[in-house]
Amino acid sequence: MTRRIRNSILAGVLLVSTSTLPIQAQNNNRFEVSKQLDIVNAVVKEVEMYYVDSVNVDKMVKRGIDAMLGGLDPYTVYYPEKDMNEFKMMTTGEYAGMGAYIRQRKNNKGVVITEPFEGMPAQKAGVKAGDIILKIDTIDVTHATSKEVSDILKGVPNTSMTLSLRRPNQKEPLKIDVTRKKVVINQVTWYGVQQDSIGYIYLKSFTDKSAKEMKDAFSDLRDHHHIKSLIIDLRDNGGGLLQDAVRIVSMFVPKGSEVISTKSKMKQWDHTYRTLVEPIDTLMPLAILINGNSASASEIVSGSLQDMDRAVLLGNRSFGKGLVQSTRDIPFNGKVKVTISKYYIPSGRCIQQLDYSHRNPDGSVATIPDSLTSIFHTAAGRLVRDGGGIRPDFEVKVDKLPTLMYYLLTDYVLFDFVTNWTQKHETIAPIEDFNVTDQDYEDFKAYAKKENFTYDRQSIKTLDRLKEVADFEGYLDKSDSTLLKPLIEKLTPNLDRDFENNKAEVKKALASEIIKRYYYQKGELRQNLKEDKVLEKAREVLSSPQQYKKTLATPKEEQEVKP
Question: Domain spanning 94-184: which superfamily?
Fold first, then answer.
């Protein structure tokens, strides 16, 4: 046999062998899936039949599925039939109920109404923030969780229920009849005009109504208020439907522009999303506000407009969620939301910050370090990076929430004070004129002390640990004990001092909560915009055509733009 013939035969064998590898791997994987399902099926049957106590199979299997999917990423989630109302509300912003936020208080102190929605059944019936739910019809919910209470409150539209409520400072429980209605949560919380000619729109999430609400708000601002530039606020917007993100982008860029492409394990699922309709404005200067809670669809809108040099971004680096989910029907009317692909904005970058496919030994997931990110370029040639969310063109430092404020909010001290305060004030001044007085502030301090408010300080715990270690290792003898005294005095909790040091932040939080009780979500947003550093910077940039143009210019053009 000649060498040429032998090599040809070997090449043919190799070709046949390698061509069958994907099929063999697929068959092996299918066998493994079938094998593991048989094991799970057998375990559930054996436990249900022989376990010493009765077993709630639904809950046990749900725990198992949640744990199994939790090892993938936080976005791959199973929804059984009983949770489909929750799933529907996420995608449409609609559900049938009374229209209010509720929350479970600490130490089993019941479920409290934290915010009735303006114009919804709860608010119209007289339910107020601070009311604690005791019964729903004849069902005692004093020891129920917030989810259990929520499930009971939701139901068929136009059905009635009687709420038994305990209102602070009233001896007898209240009974209020509420008729469930279709609750529609507006995605554009508020829009208005800043500095006479700058439009402002706050979008809270992306549902199947977000694009229409955004278009209506923008059209009103442009046609009736004659704005010359626009701010779109996507801070704390956790995302939602990809399609509505594409529709919003299409309002401001030419038809046919690429907004996003997705890449999956299944190549037939790869897709490029382009704008399909004519824009309504491609010239008006745009500013997009983002922060660390702006995720997913928010990053598609902000990132694609940045890549197309269509908008200036301000705020802080976004969350970094570059994963796309799709819902799949499963038996018995459930759904599973599965991460099926990663998305890439026009410059080619993926902004996913966490790599869930490569976990640390302890199971945690590490962020992608800046050293491993790659450089991309916008349409105009500006430098941008991948791997860490969307980075704004103007980063504005925002003050961190003080520890004191965190505990005042989570321990309901501020919430309960405002509940008492509103019972003594039937009305308040308009939002533009309202301020928390110094007397209100002193009253709040006195209330916190009366309620024996204390809070956990990590700094004092760390210092105690340092003293223990230093003493154990022989670095702290009696002569050195005075070295730490000034630091100990500075870190020892002192409520009067801490209230004084954080007076501005506490007064802002008080004002925000009070405004919300009278003017609801729109009022709270408008109040928080009063001293907003990011908004102030956006107004500054939009008020200066030279600065706006310079920010979006190519590196060569930048030198030619006058300062």
Answer: PDZ domain (2.30.42.10)
Residues 350 and 300 sit within 8 Å (Cβ to Cβ): no
Whether the per-residue pLDDT at 433 is higher than 90: the answer is yes
User: pTM value?
Assistant: 0.84
Average model confidence (pLDDT) for the chain? 88
CA dist., res. 299 & res. 36, Å (int): 38
Q: Output the CA angle 405-411-413, nearest 5 degrees.
A: 75
Tokens of 26: 């697929």
Question: Which contiguous run of DSSP H or E holds residue 263?
Answer: strand 258-264
DSSP string, 93-128: SEEEE--EEEEEPGGG--EEEEEEPTTSHHHHHT--
CB within 8 Å of 143: residues ≥ 6 apart: 108
d(CA 88, CA 217) in angstroms, rounded, equals 25
Owner of token pair 């690429």: 258
DSSP-assigned states of every residue in 382-438: -EEE-SSSPPPSEE---PPPPHHHHHHHHTTHHHHHHHHHHHT-S----GGG----H
Helix, strand or coil, per DSSP, at residue 293: coil
Q: Nearest 5°: CA angle at 201, between 199 and 203?
A: 165
Cα-Cα-Cα-Cα torsion 527, 530, 534, 540, nearest 10 degrees, comes to: 140
Q: How far apart are CA 127 and CA 100, in angstroms?
A: 9
Query: So where are the chain's domains?
Result: 94-184, 188-395, 403-457+493-531, 458-489
Question: What is the distance between the alpha carbons of residues 350 and 84, in angstroms, rounded to a whole number?
Answer: 31
- DSSP string for 42-93: HHHHHHHHH-SS---HHHHHHHHHHHHHHTT-TT-EEE-GGGHHHHHHHHHS
336 beta partners: 78, 328
How many Å apart are CA 525 and CA 292, to the nearest integer?
18
pLDDT category of residue 493 using cuts at 50, 70 and 90: low
What b-and-e string marks burial along 141-179, b requiring 16 or more CB atoms within 10 Å of the CB? beebebeebbbbbbbeeeeebebbbbbeeeeeeeebebe
Separation CA 491–CA 61 (nearest Å): 48
Tens of pLDDT, residues 517-536: 999 999 999 999 999 999 99
Q: Judge: domain 188-395, CATH 3.90.226.10.
A: yes
Tokens representing 442 are 């002193």
